[in-house]
Request: fold
Amino acid sequence: MIMSQYYNPNRTKNRYDANSSELFRLSRSKIDLFINCPRCFYLDRKLGVAQPPGFPFSLNSAVDKLLKKEFDIHRASGTKHPLMETYGIDAVPLAHEKLNQWRDSLRAGITFQIEGTKVVVTGGVDDVWVTPTGEFFIVDYKATAKEDEVTLDADWQIGYKRQMEIYQWLFRKNGYNVSDTGYFVYCNGNTDKKAFDGKLEFDIKIIPYVGNADWVQETILDAIECLKGDTMPAPGVDCDYCKYRKAVKQFEK
Ligand code: SF4
Reply:
């Protein structure tokens, strides 16, 4: 049998060890995993058995990259992007020496070490805009392709909202003045064309979201307690992975 080069089901690195003197990075996506299923979080972060990864969303990443370039032009000139004008947002893309670091979720990101622990919470932000009074808006780029108008109303989009709130919390912990309002720059691929012609055009919409980060600190402390424990926590309620495992198990001898 050939083992996939992309997946190691018995990871030895990046596992929580209460006795280690090294810092332990806890990303915002793993906090989301904890919320969805404490058991899977424990298996992954403590025991090194993570869910198999999905395929990378290369087209979404390409849109992110191009949007970053576009907003960077206005960042350099200190001007509003036309979309910000259209939506009446009184801010410009933030020019800050740490911005590239904050965007780099894998190697750096915006970070905060939880007092009295070795746990460093991390997140990689897409963009930050700043008002004339120095208040920050956290900005997230999203790409999709659907026939209906893009909204934030679907149940599964709670993850997007939590992501925004964790970033707001992280920036506040770093001493910045952050608005409760964040923005999603949502790009929707337009499939209503006669032919492809090698081009995919997008409708771009800015959707404001008023976050409430009150839950973040407590949830992180709960996640750390979970990692410190010696017993496997209960699984999440409605998980497709678990259903799959149970279904397979009935045929195994
Ligand atoms: S419920 Fe799903 S997410 Fe949780 S441990 Fe089972 S497989 Fe993992």
Q: What stands out?
A: The two ends are 20 Å apart (CA to CA).
